[in-house]
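sorry to bug you again but im stuck and you know this stuff better than me. what follows is a protein written twice so to speak, once as letters and once as C-alpha cells for the fold. id like you to explain what the C-alpha cell line says about the fold, in plain words if possible. anything you notice is useful, everything is just below.
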Amino acid sequence: MGGRDIPEPPHYYARLKKVNAKGAEVMVCVPRLQPLTPKEFQHAMQQPNVTVIDARSILHWVQSFPTS
C-alpha cells in the first residue's frame, strides 16, 4: 500500500491530537438540556448542520424495537 492510498485525516484530528496530549477540559457543571416538543424537534431537524444523538440507555434503546 503506497502513500497515495492513505486518505487525508479528518479536519478535527489536529484538535483531538492536542486534546489527547494535554487532556480534555473538565466541565464542573454540565448544562442540562430542556426536552423538545415534537414540533420543536421537527423544526430543529430542518436546520442545517444539526446532529441528533440518541443518548438513551441500552435498556431503553432495546425497548424501542418491536418484539416478534
